[in-house]
Amino acid sequence: MIELEGVPELIDPVMVAAFEGWNDAGDAASTAVAHLEREWKGEVFAALDAEDYYDFQVNRPTVFMEGGVRKITWPTTRLSVVRVGGDKPRDLVLVRGIEPSMRWRSFCNELLGFAHELGVELVVILGALLGDTPHTRPVPVSGVTSDADLARRMNLEETKYEGPTGIVGVLQEACTHAGVPAVSLWAAVPHYVSQPPNPKATLALLNRLEDLLDLRIPQGELPEDARAWQTGVDQLAAEDSEVAEYVQTLEEARDTAELPEASGEAIAREFERYLRRRDMGGPGGHATADGADSGPYRRDTPSGRTRPPKPPKPEAPGASDSEEADGSED
Q1: Which positions ≥6 away from 281 have C-beta within 8 Å?
Q2: Dihedral sign from CA coordinates of 162, 31, 250, 185
Q3: Residue 308 pLDDT more than 60?
Q4: Residue 10: which residues within 8 A CB-CB, separation 6 or more?
Q5: How remote is the C-alpha of 13 from its chain's centroid?
Q6: Which H, E and C letters describe the chain, residue by residue?
Q7: How far apart are CA 147 and CA 122, in angstroms?
Q8: Are 243 and 234 in contact (CB under 8 A)?
Q9: For 110-160, what is each residue's pLDDT tens digit?
Q10: Is residue 109 very low, low, confident or very high in pLDDT (cuts 50, 70, 90)?
Q11: pTM confidence score
């Protein structure tokens, strides 16, 4: 039995989780949870034992100095609680860590133990994958679940994905088998600019989380960072005619595929978000659309400036075979 001391009784708690690693292209998902923790001043109340789940030769501890004393920070997963105010206050249990190296079933069971003790009503897991999506268009975010009833009630896709999975997929299935409603939100990151950070993808995940939970998330500097990121990638792509041509091909495919949605549900969703804001004020490769691994964004030398690699021109651009089209990885 997990005993939690110092944690008050929570109001309609939702667990929001993200893990660095294969499920976190551009660090978009883990940065989103870090943003929630920072904006709402989350207080860490628990941490999983690092020795139970991590290979320290893969995720090495770090040494730092504090008051003249050397200390070590171990790679692990930490849980914090934040309270969202407003007309309908509620609590979020934030889970942020690194994809474990071993004992995934025990890892998920321990997180589910916390969820049970805290009375969590819903688990939302954030992820990001690499896909054939242009950086110049809105970031596609898929909301998927293994629960057919939950898919109908929350307007989500029921996942049909088959293939390699990460801790996001394993945790979602663990929730399903334990009878805990669970949703995964996946942002698609352009595979030709996968180097973190990707504030545009982070912002897209947070916007989708707002819609899902019907709350307002302070955006801080993310909108400005997202605009600066896109401007920077525009400049890099403009330096290479082959990349610029490839981006244009992706844009045309994306615009054609999403033309019907542009005049319907997407516009209504953006308008609802506008009204809500007005009323309330104010390491390693990553998962790709086909389940494979992909390396990081290439760097120029000697300056070290990031630069998109020259991608092969696909016969049929788009993400028709992606995890999002199938209901995402999870």
Answers
A1: none
A2: positive
A3: no
A4: 81, 91, 93, 118, 119
A5: 19
A6: CCCCCCCCCCCCCEEEEEEECCCEHHHHHHHHHHHHHHHCCCEEEEECCHHHHCCCCCCCCEEEEECCEEEEECCCCEEEEEEECCCCCEEEEEEEEECCCCCHHHHHHHHHHHHHHHCCCEEEEEEEEEECCCCCCCCCEEEEECCHHHHHHCCCEECCCCCCCCHHHHHHHHHHHCCCCEEEEEEEEEHHHCCCCCHHHHHHHHHHHHHHHCCCCCCCCHHHHHHHHHHHHHHHHHCCHHHHHHHHHHHHHHHHHCHHHHCCHHHHHHHHHHHHHHHHCCCCCCCECCCCCCCCCCECCCCCCECCCCCCCCCCCCCCCCCCCCCCCC
A7: 12
A8: no
A9: 999 999 999 999 999 999 999 999 999 999 999 999 988 899 988 899 888
A10: very high
A11: 0.80
Q: Exposed, middle or buried by CB within 10 Å (0-12, 13-18, 19+), for 111?
A: buried
Amino acid symbol at 288: T
What is the rounded CA–CA span in Å between residue 135 and residue 201? 10
The token duo for 86 is 């407003």
Distance of alpha carbon 193 from alpha carbon 173, whole angstroms = 30
Contacts of 322 (CB under 8 A, 6+ apart): 129, 131, 132, 188, 289, 290
How far apart, in Å, are the Cα atoms of 305 and each of 124, 232, 243, 244, 312? 35, 11, 16, 18, 22
Q: Are 18 and 125 in contact (CB under 8 A)?
A: yes
Q: Which residue do the tokens 């929570």 mark?
A: 10
What distance, in Å, lies between the first and last C-alpha atoms of the chain?
A: 29
Token output for 204: 């897209």
Looking at residues 30-52, what average pLDDT do you find?
95
Of the pLDDT bands very low, low, confident and very high (cuts 50, 70, 90), residue 282 is very low
Peptide bond connecting 197 to the previous residue in cis, omega within 30 degrees of 0 = yes
pLDDT given for residue 69 in this prediction? 94
Tokens of 131: 């896909």
**92, two tokens:** 């979020």
